[in-house]
Design a protein that fits this description.
The protein is 12% helix and 32% strand. The chain is mainly beta. It has one domain: 2,3-Dihydroxybiphenyl 1,2-Dioxygenase, domain 1 (Roll), CATH 3.10.180.
Length: 207
């Protein structure tokens, strides 16, 4: 299973400035009409990192079926601030066999996002196609980081245990039950032997 992108809910995206100061090159951002969210994004060779926030509270609350508003309010709720988007392949069919099907405004008719959602678990989801593969975005970073080699989600609670067991069979993704609520991203098999902590995002980077 391959990762399309990972999102982290933030406070109006300003935490992205710390990522840029670290030496990452920011790409394009966008707003999500009908959902009420906006983002700032950083692209790498094989995925992108999305820093997400609510721009329009009314729109976000209108799609509360999928928990956008509560996830954005992670500081005051039990909801996870993280989301994992898997690339749409036959290998992921078994992950989403019993998922929620959600039709956002920006998708054409008969196209849906598959979502596994539980308040303390990250959103685990996939789009109907791998639309991000051809995005022309900057991928050269001053700190020399290139490729994501592993993503680890440390979580206080694990749900979808049979599905998570399947995902954990992949060497590039792991869910661990822990007292911490933290995302760990490993780049380039840690070849530089360095670590960077971003407390504002519950994010640690090994590179």
């Amino acid at each position: 299973m391959n990762i399309d992108h990972i999102y982290i809910f933030s406070t109006k995206g300003k935490e992205t400035d710390e990522l840029v100061e670290f030496g990452l090159t920011e790409g394009s951002g966008r707003t999500h009409k009908g959902i009420g969210t906006a983002n700032r994004r950083i692209f790498f060779d094989n995925f992108y990192l999305e820093i997400l926030w609510v721009e329009n509270e009314k729109e976000a609350k209108n799609v509360e079926k999928i928990g956008i508003w509560k996830r954005s309010n992670f500081k005051n709720s039990q909801y996870s601030r993280f989301g994992l988007c898997l690339k749409n392949t036959k290998e992921t069919d078994r992950v989403f066999y019993n998922s929620i099907k959600w039709k956002p405004d920006f998708l054409p008719e008969n196209k849906f996002v598959d979502i596994l959602t539980n308040e303390r678990m990250p959103w685990i989801f996939r789009f109907p196609d791998n639309r991000n593969n051809k995005l022309d975005e900057p991928r050269n970073h001053k700190n020399g980081i290139n490729k994501l080699t592993k993503a680890v989600f440390n979580l206080p609670e694990i749900d979808f245990k049979s599905i998570i067991s399947e995902i954990n069979e992949n060497p590039n993704i792991e869910f661990i039950q822990s007292s911490e609520n933290q995302l760990i991203l490993e780049f380039d098999n840690r070849k530089q032997g360095k670590t960077k902590q971003f407390e504002c995002l519950n994010l640690k980077i090994y590179y």
